[in-house]
Amino acid sequence: MSFPANFLWGGATAANQCEGAYNEDGKGLDIQDVLPHGFGLRTAEPTSDNLKLRAIDYYHHYREDIALFAEMGFKVYRFSIAWSRIYPTGEEEEPNEKGLAFYDAVLDECEKYGIEPLVTISHYETPLALAEKYNGWSDRRMISLYLKYCQTLFTYFRGRVHYWITFNEINSILRQPFMSGGIGTPKDQLTNQDLYQAVHHELVASAKAVKMAHEIDPANQVGCMVVGITVYPLSPDPDDILKVMGLDNDCYLFLDVQCRGAYPYFAAKRFEKLNVKLDIQDDDLDALKNTVDFLAFSYYSSNCVSADPSKGEPSRSNMTPELRKNPYLKVTEWGWQIDPKGLRYTLNRFYARYQKPLFIAENGLGANDVLIDDGKGSKTVIDDYRIAYMREHLKQVKLAIEEDGVPVIGYTAWGCIDLISCSTAEISKRYGMIYVDLNPDGTGTLNRYRKKSFWWYKNVIATNGEEL
């Protein structure tokens, strides 16, 4: 067997990176509206240099964009719902009807073309008011506010959405506490106690959301999602192996709870070493027993690590500065290492530990594309480098399925349409198979153009991965 007959081929976006319309139809501010430079410093209020405020204006182009996704043959479209578009401050008694109406219309378009929606409930889009009032997820009151939001989504979209992800890349809170968890305390001042308490609050909220989703609609399938950066030892030195183990455990801490229903064996010793004493309330541990239906992850690259910080060349990893460059791999323009076989390894590693169906929720290549005339009265991008990247990764997915027996539900290519980069908040780092005419200074027509990869991916989907 190769790709299953019901394999979910598609693409993924995030509201904060594509929608724009940051202050239209009752939407409140979210943390991205004050992060004009990605992982850089936040601003006191939205500023004109923040491309995410307009982004690619998907809010007004969604019909055109989903039609293009359908033309590619998408079986699934992963998108996020902006929390502050539904509850502008996070604390309103009633949801914003115009916000719900927008996502209603998005689902109408998906249904028109037979595209299955995969909805991320929280994708680095904590309402700014909650980040400022409660310091984000460091406060336990965030659990009930998140669950109110979840109940609105599960109830309002019952029967229309069957695949959900509770938190995008939940483990990223360890590296980017403000973007991932709405925690405003500067990283160099944030205590381990507050950080891991926030982790606990998110894990409890996620587990309770899983239970709620199943109760509201038993057909719901709810997944967790992590950053799936696979790390290799820089050398066979046993200290390097143990360093890898520690970084793997950063991820397993989240996955063990969400996939197995309890903290892993190493958690108690880790918390003791970090002087963390979690405030665990009466029903928390019971709540954590509500495990997810599938495990989703992002995978772009792999990295190496050494126990000796003087060894190796820095890998330019966004979130983990101690990672090192792998001398055997090529890199992208932004220094990300290209490792298709690492995706097969990651699929096997996660399935061996959890025996949960897997979903590749993000994978793609960021590149500085050049728009040219296509000779037919339109424009295109000859992005053979993107095709090569995706082809080699999908070959490894195919091997994981047919040679290793790993159950993979689907594959949603990240940034199926050009959008604003998460890490750098720029448009120049393009991932899409659809080019959007938007310049770094915010000018541009916003016209959409099919890249060469558009037609390649269309054929991949049409042949169910037999022609890569």
Large-scale geometry: globular
| Sheet having the most strands | 8 strands, parallel, barrel
Number of helices, where a helix is a run of at least 4 consecutive DSSP H or I residues: 14
Report the C-alpha radius of gyration, rounded: 21 Å
Helix-strand string: EHHEHHEHHEHHEEHHHEEHEEEHEEEH
Strand content: 5-15%
Termini separation comes to: 16 Å
Q: What ranges have pLDDT less than 50 throughout 5 or more consecutive residues?
A: none
Can you give the helix content as a percent range? 25-40%
Number of strands: 14
Question: Helices and strands in order, then pairings?
Answer:
Elements (H helix, E strand, L loop, with lengths): L7 E5 L2 H4 L39 H15 L3 E5 L2 H4 L10 H16 L3 E7 L5 H7 L6 H16 L6 E5 L9 H5 L10 H25 L4 E7 L2 E4 L4 H23 L6 H7 L10 H4 L6 E5 L3 E4 L34 H15 L3 E5 L9 E2 L5 E2 L3 H19 L5 E7 L19 E3 L11 E3 L1 H11 L6
Parallel strand pairs: 1-2, 1-12, 2-3, 3-4, 4-5, 5-7, 6-8, 7-9, 9-12
Antiparallel strand pairs: 10-11, 13-14
Helix pairs in contact: 2-4, 6-8, 12-13
Offer a few descriptive terms.
14 strands, alpha/beta, 468 residues, 14 helices
Can you walk me through this structure?
This protein is of the alpha/beta class and 468 residues long. 37% of the residues lie in helices and 14% in strands. The strands form four sheets. It has an eight-stranded parallel beta barrel, surrounded by four helices. Strands 6-8 form a two-stranded parallel ribbon. β10 and β11 form a beta hairpin. α2 runs parallel beside α4, α6 packs parallel to α8 and α12 runs parallel beside α13. The longest helix is centred in the middle third of the chain and has 25 residues. It starts with 7 loop residues before the first strand and ends in a 6-residue tail after the last helix. The model has no long low-confidence stretch (mean pLDDT 97).
